[in-house]
Amino acid sequence: MPGFLLCADPLRPSRPDPAFAEEAGTVRDMGAVTALLDHDALLAGDAAGAVARVPRGSGPYWYRGWMIPVQRYAELELALADRGATLLTDAAAYRRAHELPGWYSVFDGLTPRSVWHPLSASAPAPEDGAFWSALARPLGRGPGIVKDFVKSRKHEWHEACFVPELGDSEALATVVGRLVALQGDFLAGGVVVRAFERFVPGGEARVWWVDGAPVLVTAHPDTPDDRPLPETGAVGEAVRRLGCRLVTTDLALREDGVWRVVEVGDGQVSGLPSGTGAKPLLEALRDA
Asked: pLDDT (tens digit, 9 = 90+) per residue, 275-284?
């Protein structure tokens, strides 16, 4: 039976983080092994210290916890290997599902058209509007959104996310610059520009896939009271081509009645909406 690696409470490191306490209790009730990760230490670059509470030789783990930058995840994988433990999602698979450039080609035609530019969090973003206009040119004219390789700033919609006209190079550069400034050291991978598509009201559905099979359909954490039921046939084919063991897909219904993939994510760091029990997901991971 695989174990579960959970984030520790920063104030009481011998206990699970309160955000994952319910999942920890479910895992214990299933009889599975649990271990605790010091997430703060990992983000600070101390991978060995982050896994100090993981028993040596304790076998394979599913991680369930806060997001981890891809480089830190690779360091986590190595630190666990030094203790004779493994992650059931390796670093290459984590990056493939977690960052848009890793999954985009597999979901091409199912998700809004996108282009991107790699950018380090420590590097300044190009300020020249012509640069960003040239990058976005394959998307054509019309509205768009900008985000990093993992997340958007949709709560600062008009400031750091939405661009009314991608052909307006000055407006595009302004929104990109604000996104990069707000993300700061948390900028993941670079900048993505996506064509904007209009969706009907009713929220997004999050589908959880384990080894290519849908094991749970939930609301999106941002809209926990909206629970649409999406069509998943073509999406499932893409998930299986992606080849990652634990994946989430966020789907929304476009105004023309077509279900679209808004986002793909590594399911280890995807959140469950409030009021949704984790037991079906955790049982599927236990049995995988």
From this structure: 889 999 999 9
